[in-house]
């Protein structure tokens, strides 16, 4: 059993690691692994280390009671066949299922999910309240069933079908997350947390800054940090950092004799990246901006 398959299979409570009865299918789309798996288990609990996939787990055949934390806080419920949950990527998770059960998993690599959703590498794959409960949606339920059947065929049409189906699932998750009011982290970041994070950003504008690095400053997981930061400041951390860098660049362009290359380095960009951000956010190049603001 491959590493990726083993990691996803460990999400299933009540299934011994060596149990070969689990049904597994594995195919490739766009050159990366797309995995679906089914498992049958007895009552049990599992704790799983972070996995680099966006994972949907669907109940099939039997209803069951469960308690879990899928990376966004603890919840419990009574799942019925075709309901599904959405696991937070790269999060520590645990789940206890109180009844015999059968589960189907879809694991989408984060690189593929980001490509379809147009997300940057720094932006978490956050589907809000969908991570905090079991969900019912006919489109996703039937698409997961169709994906499972299609993966067993593996003919020339499979790749095209997978592309359309995965894009549809991701678009539907995005839509559902926006239609449902998001759970709010109480108060977002505290005053001292915001101050510490923003001061760090301003002091290191010329250096690479990762989401994990910012979250570690205030002892939060990257996922919870990103949600709390957005609530407090109205933007995800990477976009807020881009805004700070562009503000610094604008000031230097207008009030210094530094070259555009030097300004780019001081704000964490190459000249080409700085020009691209200026065109995207301000509709002009750094050189044009400087000319307009010459005194």
Polypeptide structure, described:
The longest helix is centred in the middle third of the chain and has 22 residues, at 158-179. A hairpin with a 4-residue loop joins strand 5 (64-69) and strand 6 (74-79). It is built from eleven helices and nine strands. The relative contact order is 0.10. With 295 residues, it is α+β, with helices and mostly antiparallel strands.
Category from helices, strands and their pairing: alpha+beta
Number of helices: 11
Radius of gyration: 22 Å
CATH architecture of the largest domain: Sandwich
The number of distinct β-strands equals 9
Distance between the termini: 68 Å
The biggest sheet, with number of strands, parallel, antiparallel or mixed sense and barrel status, is: 5 strands, antiparallel
Mean model confidence by pLDDT: 82
The fraction of residues in strands falls at 15-25%
Query: SSE order, as H and E?
Result: HEEEEEEEEEHHHHHHHHHH
Give the name of the CATH superfamily of the largest domain. Jelly Rolls
């Amino acid at each position: 059993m491959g590493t990726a398959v083993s990691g996803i299979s460990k999400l299933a409570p009540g299934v011994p690691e060596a149990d070969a009865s689990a049904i597994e299918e594995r195919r490739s789309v766009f050159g990366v692994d797309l995995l679906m798996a089914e498992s049958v288990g007895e009552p049990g609990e599992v704790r799983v280390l972070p996995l680099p996939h966006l994972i949907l787990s669907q109940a099939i055949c039997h209803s069951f009671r469960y308690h879990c934390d899928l990376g966004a806080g603890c919840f419990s419920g009574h799942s019925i066949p075709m309901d599904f949950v959405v696991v937070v990527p790269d999060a520590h998770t645990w789940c206890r299922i109180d009844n015999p059960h059968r589960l189907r998993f879809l694991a989408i690599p984060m690189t593929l999910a980001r490509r379809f959703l147009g997300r940057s590498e720094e932006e978490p794959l956050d589907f809000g309240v969908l991570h905090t409960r079991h969900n019912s949606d006919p489109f996703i339920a039937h698409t997961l069933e169709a994906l499972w059947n299609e993966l067993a065929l593996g003919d020339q049409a499979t790749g095209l079908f997978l592309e359309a189906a995965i894009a549809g699932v991701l678009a539907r998750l995005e839509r559902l997350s926006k239609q449902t009011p998001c759970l709010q982290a109480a108060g977002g970041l505290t005053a001292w947390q915001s101050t510490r994070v923003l001061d760090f950003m301003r002091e290191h504008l010329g250096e690479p800054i990762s989401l994990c690095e910012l979250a570690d400053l205030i002892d939060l997981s990257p996922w919870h940090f990103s949600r709390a930061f957005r609530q407090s400041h109205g933007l995800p951390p990477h976009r807020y950092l881009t805004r700070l860098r562009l503000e610094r660049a604008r000031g230097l362009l207008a009030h210094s004799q530094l070259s555009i290359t030097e300004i780019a380095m001081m704000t964490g960009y190459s000249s080409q990246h700085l020009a691209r951000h200026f065109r995207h956010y301000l509709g002009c190049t750094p050189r044009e901006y400087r000319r307009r603001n010459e005194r």
